[in-house]
Design brief:
By secondary structure, this protein is an alpha/beta fold. The chain folds into 2 domains: 221 residues, Rossmann fold (3-Layer(aba) Sandwich), CATH 3.40.50.300; 69 residues, Alpha-Beta Plaits. Helix content is 34%, strand content 29%. It is built from 11 helices and 15 strands. The strands form 3 sheets. The chain has a 6-stranded mixed sheet with strand order 7-8-9-4-10-11, sandwiched between helices. Strands 1, 2, 3, 5 and 6 form a 5-stranded antiparallel sheet that branches. The structure holds adenosine-5'-triphosphate and magnesium ion (MG). Adenosine-5'-triphosphate (ATP) binds next to strand 2 and helix 1.
């Protein structure tokens, strides 16, 4: 298989903090590869290393056939990075910001002029194209930042939380935009702590926690590992001892597993749970403060592996 990124035991420590703690990656060329993980998991640090911004503490990486340590200049020419922290020239317009990046990459005006306006149109930014970026909303700035990563049509693009702070409508626009690059055979790395985003967009993804990959697979493959049942989640009063309730639920023959999460919640996986809901209530005995039933999600995969939510 042709790989866009291959890493071997990649690490980055900041003093005592093991931000990235031995990551082995194999990202196929042309894939949309997700990094899903909570705050502080090490997603941005990994991207900073792979995009040549931050030297690793140890380990190896090969990006598009180039060695990260020895050939970082070659790598820089073939990648695009949309950083988590927005970087824009506030005193320029959106169009000028993108032109400037195009010039930095050595593109000719004939090549970038139309492309810039086409990109701005696809991000619904054309009507404000002549205003200074400092007059833009946060969501508009984020969308300009996404465009600045792709104007030179790089082979490999890193999007670090490209939809952070966007409303649902703009988020859709960015998702469609990113999916278009996949069609054009670029390789895309997308970080997010939004499980729907990771699920919807990734061909394959890793879940990262505390600087380590805790699992890897396609979204359906990962969710499939939790079994075929539904997820039932409910809340009980803080005074209730959940350790007394959990064994009673485990005894139900359609229940596959039960876990306490957070301070007051219980999560279970059961086959055909909706039909059995009254049996669950009978087993719980105490009052439920709320209850939800759903198909399992990538967040449930994370909870299953760590006992925590993606966002506590
Ligand atoms: N320059 C730095 N100096 C010290 N610690 C750092 C530095 N950069 C990152 N860290 C630490 O490394 C860990 C990983 O941070 P990182 O930004 O990679 O996480 P992340 O997965 O991108 O999180 P988020 O979802 O919040 O963006 C955190 O504990 C963070 O505090
Ligand atoms: Mg980050």
């Amino acid at each position: 298989m042709d790989l866009a990124i291959e890493t071997n035991n990649l690490k980055r420590y900041f003093g005592d903090i093991h931000a990235v703690d031995g990551i082995d990656l194999a990202v196929p060329k042309g894939s949309l590869f997700g990094f899903l993980g909570p705050n502080g998991a090490g997603k941005t640090t990994t991207i900073s290393m792979l995009s040549t911004v931050l030297p690793p503490t140890s380990g190896k990486a090969n990006i598009l056939g180039y060695d990260l340590k020895k050939e970082s200049n070659k790598i820089k020419e073939c990648i695009g990075v949309c950083p988590q922290d927005i970087v824009l020239y506030e005193r320029l317009t959106a169009r000028e910001n993108i032109h400037l990046i195009a010039q930095m990459h050595g593109l000719k005006k004939a090549d970038y002029k139309e492309r810039t306006d086409d990109l701005l149109g696809r991000m619904n930014l054309l009507d404000r194209v002549n205003s200074l970026v400092k007059t833009y909303s946060g969501g508009m700035k984020r969308r300009v930042n996404v465009l600045m990563a792709v104007i030179h049509e790089p082979e490999l693009i890193f999007f670090d939380e490209p939809t952070a702070g966007l409303d649902p409508q703009s988020r859709r626009v960015v998702w469609d935009f990113i999916k278009d690059f996949q069609k054009k055979k670029s390789t895309i790395i997308l970080t997010t702590h939004n499980m729907e985003e990771a699920d919807d967009l990734s061909d394959e993804l890793i879940i990262i926690d505390n600087g380590k990959i805790i699992t890897q697979g396609t979204p359906s493959n990962l969710k499939g590992r939790l079994g075929e049942g539904d997820i039932v989640e409910f809340k009980v009063d803080e005074a209730i001892n959940r350790e007394k309730i959990i064994p009673r639920i485990k005894d139900l023959n359609f229940v596959k597993w039960v876990k306490p999460i957070g301070k007051r919640r219980i999560l279970l996986n059961g086959l055909d749970a909706l039909r059995h809901i009254s049996k669950i209530m009978d087993a719980v005995k105490v009052k439920m403060l709320d209850i939800s039933i759903r198909e399992n999600t990538l967040e449930d995969v994370f909870i299953d592996l760590t006992g925590r939510r993606l966002r506590d």
